[in-house]
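ARCHIVE CARD
CATEGORY: sequence design from structure
SOURCE FIELD: tokenized fold
FIELD CONTENT:
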């Protein structure tokens, strides 16, 4: 497959109207010469994201997120830059048959190679004569051949030395195999960690295999599941099972189904429901919550229909709600888990349960009623207080609706209930419209903010590089000078520059990528102005002169050479004169 050039990436970006692309994700309305919409990168309630058709850039003036069309698609869909380029190419109808020339992180190349090879061995085992019993078990579990291939399911032979011997013949280091959780070391030798089990690969968010779940498929007095231990590439708390396979289906369906185990996810996927994820335990880490939040879709919790599943549903639902992730709940009546439900009642009945998922707050309140005699005054008071405690951090509308339900259901005085709950003061409409103006970027020192503006101008129009070289020509930070060098190279190569294109160019280079992205987020320039640019140059020049004066003073204080001291004093006087006389930069 050919390597895509910078020119081709630029062609794709130039063919994509940012207004049209973003409109596929967020409704936009024209105001003046720009378009505005609700920003998807923070909890936005008033349109604070501006999209410029002229400059092909977007900017939120509340959270400061900004960039070009690739930036938006990459961050909205939580995908890599490479995937974002392909997604935009697909949207504008440009055939995409390239590998992007991007630096690949080879840090774990050997680890991924070993895991891929081991997966292939397990798959071959499943299709061998020795794997017949395991294949029959998977058929009884109603897993299709396509699903088995999709999830790369395999089989570890009933031989504790099989994988060890094969991998050692491949000359892999035994310590590396032990570290990856494939082999248990035993002195100078070793033996397989997974023996006579169905093998389910676990992939990270990028789709690379990082571990395995080994499941027994016959009655045996041993652990039902064995999972890979935490390794350099497998961090359980950073992974959600089936994320890579499911993410595009989730975006299409605009909802994610979250189940308890990976076999549940695989079984549901066989039924044609592909937008399904599975927990790597019965609790969510903050990293997993962040992953789910970035999907920007509601989550339907469908955990096992037992006491442990109910507790996990409440805990996970609370955690998601506190992090502003909308969620609802399905409890499968008459079955222990999704697999059993589908077998007993069929796929259509299962799909129907999803359509009738219960809002998490309603489910939370429903659970509170369990085992309470609400005809008993004391238990009713307890229930009402528990409800109020749950809704205390909710929005005003949720509080009001919940209190009115309590009032109607139990014939309680609404006004008395309302006195027990604190409502957030309403913001007047005219105040809301000014919220954008009151928000400011993250606080930075004056020099950094000034130089970021200078660099933004230079990345936006070639004439500002010429002015900079004539009037200033130097910046004190190496990373800033590196960026100027890249701007000069870019202009030599292409003859012209704009920020939308340069933002794409910078994505490929480690030495400038972070700085350019920071500038994109921190700078809030709407229209370029020659006078403003000259003002930024003057401020930067003054700051650097004062910095030099401070350094000279420190040098004078430390020096014992009289002649050297006099030279430094004269330099100091000359710099002070230039600042006082306000000489042009």
């Amino acid at each position: 497959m050919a390597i895509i050039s910078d020119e081709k990436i630029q062609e794709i970006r130039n063919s994509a109207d940012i207004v049209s692309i973003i409109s596929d994700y967020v409704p936009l309305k024209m105001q003046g010469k720009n378009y505005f919409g609700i920003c998807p990168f923070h909890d936005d309630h008033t349109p604070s994201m501006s999209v410029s058709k002229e400059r092909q850039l977007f900017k939120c003036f509340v959270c400061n997120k900004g960039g070009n069309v690739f930036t938006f698609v990459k961050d909205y869909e939580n995908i890599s830059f490479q995937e974002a380029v392909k997604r935009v190419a697909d949207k504008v109808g440009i055939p995409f048959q390239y590998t992007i020339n991007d630096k690949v992180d080879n840090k774990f190349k050997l680890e991924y190679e070993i895991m891929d090879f081991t997966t292939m061995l397990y798959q071959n085992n499943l299709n061998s004569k020795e794997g017949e019993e395991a294949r029959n078990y998977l058929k009884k579990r109603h897993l299709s051949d396509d699903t088995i291939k999709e999830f790369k399911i395999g089989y570890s032979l009933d031989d504790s030395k099989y994988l060890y011997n094969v991998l050692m013949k491949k000359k892999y280091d035994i310590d590396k195999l032990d570290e990856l959780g494939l082999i248990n070391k035993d002195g100078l030798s070793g033996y397989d960690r997974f023996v006579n089990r169905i093998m389910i690969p676990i992939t990270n968010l990028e789709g690379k295999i990082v571990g395995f779940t080994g499941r027994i498929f016959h009655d045996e007095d041993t652990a039902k599941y064995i999972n890979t231990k935490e390794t350099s590439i497998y961090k359980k708390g950073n992974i959600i099972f089936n994320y890579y396979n499911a993410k595009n289906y989730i975006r299409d369906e605009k909802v994610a189904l979250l189940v308890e185990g990976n076999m549940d996810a695989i079984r549901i996927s066989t039924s044609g429901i592909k937008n399904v994820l599975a927990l790597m335990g019965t609790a969510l880490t903050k990293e997993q919550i962040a992953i789910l939040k970035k999907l920007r879709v509601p989550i339907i919790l469908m955990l096992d229909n037992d006491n442990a599943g109910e507790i996990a549903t409440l805990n996970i639902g609370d955690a998601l709600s506190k992090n502003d992730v909308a969620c609802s709940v399905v409890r499968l009546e008459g079955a222990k888990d999704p697999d059993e439900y589908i077998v007993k009642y069929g796929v259509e009945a299962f799909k129907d349960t999803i359509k009738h998922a219960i809002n998490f707050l309603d489910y939370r309140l429903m659970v509170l009623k369990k085992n309470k005699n609400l005809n008993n005054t004391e238990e009713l008071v307890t229930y009402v207080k528990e409800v109020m405690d749950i809704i205390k951090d909710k929005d005003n509308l949720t509080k009001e609706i919940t209190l009115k339900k309590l009032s109607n259901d139990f014939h309680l005085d609404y006004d008395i209930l309302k006195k027990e709950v604190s409502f957030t003061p309403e913001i007047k409409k005219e105040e809301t419209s000014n919220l954008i103006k009151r928000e400011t970027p993250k606080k930075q020192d004056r020099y950094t903010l000034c130089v970021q503006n200078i660099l933004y101008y230079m990345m936006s129009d070639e004439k500002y590089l010429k002015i900079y070289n004539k009037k200033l020509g130097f910046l004190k930070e190496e990373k800033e000078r590196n960026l100027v060098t890249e701007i000069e190279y870019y202009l030599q190569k292409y003859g012209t520059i704009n920020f939308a294109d340069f933002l794409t160019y910078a994505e490929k280079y480690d030495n400038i990528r972070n700085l350019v992205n920071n500038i994109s987020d921190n700078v809030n320039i709407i229209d370029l102005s020659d006078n403003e640019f000259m003002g930024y140059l003057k401020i930067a020049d003054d700051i650097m002169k004062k910095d030099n004066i401070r350094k000279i003073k420190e040098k004078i204080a430390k020096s014992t050479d009289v002649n050297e001291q006099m030279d430094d004093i004269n330099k100091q006087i000359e710099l002070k004169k230039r600042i006082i006389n306000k000489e042009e930069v």
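CARD ANNOTATION: The first helix runs from residue 6 to 15. The CA atoms of residues 85 and 129 lie 45 Å apart.
SHELF: design records, drawer C
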